[in-house]
Structure formats: structure tokens, C-alpha cells
Amino acid sequence: MSDVRTIPSIAILGTGSMGSAILSGLLQPGVEVTGGIRVTNRTRAKAAELAKLPGVTSIAVEDDPDANRNAVAGARVVLVAVKPAIVPELLREIADALEPDTIVISVAAGVTVATFEALLPDTIAVLRSMPNTPSVVGRGVTGLSAGTRSSDDDLAVGRAVFETVGTVIEVPEPQLDALSTISGSGPAYVFLLIEELTKTAISKGFTPEQAAILVNGTFRGAAELLAQSDRSPEELRIQVTSPKGTTERAVAVLQNANLKRTFDEATDAALARAKELAAGS
């Protein structure tokens, strides 16, 4: 039985951090893209850099005003990874260059399936995705939603694309903005916790280098322990928290701070902003 994941021909429009992360996933061993990979980028320098990658055709808009149209011609999958504000303009540009059975996947935060479907021909299937930044190291979590014209087979293709950079969870589109407040923004919450605990370590007399080793290593080790364990986070916390011990005293302070309420308020604020972005404000 082959372990090779096969992806149909794909065009990636926009190779910023997320577009580049997905491109890296497609180039991993065990992934075969039939029909090739075409990518577009605004600048000649970035396009030349990407053109060095095996199996990648890279086109700069700076050199070719029709770069995006040329990239999508004949592609089975088109990944739209440009900034949300320029998505409508890009869709109008490529609409009549797409093959009738193309799957267009949005990676643009806040841009709805309805926007894509309104600007693309009826024969085009649309999926909306919300990957997160750990995709850059193959540890991403991507939310994936179907459009009104997409089939189960289209979803399977989209899942295969994002599984090259991590884990995929399929949700209805109305839930995707809520998902973005958890997994999409979540790395920032973790980095903030690491940042603040590092400051605390330094205030207790450790050098910044020592604090980084202590805190970064602890977060990485705890995450890996959770990944390899069959126990829940609560069970693992209780295992570390000896009765009447030092950790119990510290955890009590954190629990009294009502972290649940804080995370509720934080994610509600993120969700409100996602709705504002979707409304164009």
C-alpha cells in the first residue's frame, strides 16, 4: 500500500507566510502533485527564489501582468492566499481563466464563501479555510468549510492539501470565525503566556537566556506530553499538582484569576472583529 499523498495540479496565488507554508507542505516527501505547482508573487526577486524549488513554476506579477491568470489556467486547485482586501479584485481578474471543474480555496481571513461564489462562475467549487501559523513547521490546525457548490470529493481534495501541513477539522462555515478565535489566534495566546512567564523567570533572577530555556522547554515538553498521552489536559494537570504542594498553591492563584472568563472575553472580542472584517469594516 502506497503512503504517497496525491494532490492534483495546484496554483497558489500569493506566497506570503501562509501560501509559502502550504507550498512547503506540498514539497514534502510523500506528497506528489500531479500536473505541477504554479505560484505567483508580486516581486521578481521573490519569484526567482521560489523558482529554484523543484517542480515549482513561479511567476512575478512585476514581470507578467497576467501572472495570476496564467497560473490558474489548467489548475485543478487554486489557493487564494492574498491579503483579504484585494481578494475581490483578484477573483474578477481570474474568473474567466478558471477551468469549469476548478476548486478555489480561500485562505483569506474574513472573506466569505458567498463573496467568492458571487464573483466566480457557477461551475467553480469554493472552499473556505482557516489555517494557523504552526503550519509553517508542519504542525498546523486548519478549519475547512464547504461552499454551496462543493462536493464531498472537493472537500477531500481540500483536506489533502492542508493535511500536508498538519491537522484538518471540517466545520460549517458559520462556525469558521469562531474556530479562528481558538486555533487561528490561539498561537498568539500561547506566545503571550510564554512571554509573561519568561518575564516572571527573569524577575526571579534568571538571565534572559536561562529564562528562555526554562519556559520554552517547559511549554514544548508539556505540549509533547499531551500529544503522546491518552490523558486529558485536566488529568495531566492533576498529575503534576501534588496535594498541599507548591504547584497546588500556584494553580489556585491562576484559577482564582478566572482564566475561563478571560479567554471567553478574549475570543468574543476576536469573533466580533471577524464579523466586522466580513462586513468590510
Automatic annotation (TrEMBL):
<feature type="binding site">
    <location>
        <begin position="13"/>
        <end position="18"/>
    </location>
    <ligand>
        <name>NADP(+)</name>
    </ligand>
</feature>
<dbReference type="GO" id="GO:0004735">
    <property type="term" value="F:pyrroline-5-carboxylate reductase activity"/>
</dbReference>
<dbReference type="InterPro" id="IPR000304">
    <property type="entry name" value="Pyrroline-COOH_reductase"/>
</dbReference>
<dbReference type="GO" id="GO:0055129">
    <property type="term" value="P:L-proline biosynthetic process"/>
</dbReference>
<keyword id="KW-0641">Proline biosynthesis</keyword>
<dbReference type="InterPro" id="IPR029036">
    <property type="entry name" value="P5CR_dimer"/>
</dbReference>
<comment type="function">
    <text>Catalyzes the reduction of 1-pyrroline-5-carboxylate (PCA) to L-proline.</text>
</comment>
<feature type="binding site">
    <location>
        <begin position="81"/>
        <end position="84"/>
    </location>
    <ligand>
        <name>NADP(+)</name>
    </ligand>
</feature>
<comment type="pathway">
    <text>Amino-acid biosynthesis; L-proline biosynthesis; L-proline from L-glutamate 5-semialdehyde: step 1/1.</text>
</comment>
<comment type="similarity">
    <text>Belongs to the pyrroline-5-carboxylate reductase family.</text>
</comment>
<dbReference type="Pfam" id="PF14748">
    <property type="entry name" value="P5CR_dimer"/>
</dbReference>
<dbReference type="InterPro" id="IPR008927">
    <property type="entry name" value="6-PGluconate_DH-like_C_sf"/>
</dbReference>
<keyword id="KW-0028">Amino-acid biosynthesis</keyword>
<keyword id="KW-0521">NADP</keyword>
<dbReference type="Pfam" id="PF03807">
    <property type="entry name" value="F420_oxidored"/>
</dbReference>
<dbReference type="InterPro" id="IPR053790">
    <property type="entry name" value="P5CR-like_CS"/>
</dbReference>
<feature type="domain" description="Pyrroline-5-carboxylate reductase catalytic N-terminal">
    <location>
        <begin position="10"/>
        <end position="110"/>
    </location>
</feature>
<feature type="domain" description="Pyrroline-5-carboxylate reductase dimerisation">
    <location>
        <begin position="173"/>
        <end position="277"/>
    </location>
</feature>
<keyword id="KW-0963">Cytoplasm</keyword>
<feature type="binding site">
    <location>
        <position position="68"/>
    </location>
    <ligand>
        <name>NADPH</name>
    </ligand>
</feature>
<keyword id="KW-0560">Oxidoreductase</keyword>
<dbReference type="InterPro" id="IPR036291">
    <property type="entry name" value="NAD(P)-bd_dom_sf"/>
</dbReference>
<protein>
    <recommendedName>
        <fullName>Pyrroline-5-carboxylate reductase</fullName>
        <ecNumber>1.5.1.2</ecNumber>
    </recommendedName>
</protein>
<dbReference type="InterPro" id="IPR028939">
    <property type="entry name" value="P5C_Rdtase_cat_N"/>
</dbReference>
<dbReference type="GO" id="GO:0005737">
    <property type="term" value="C:cytoplasm"/>
</dbReference>
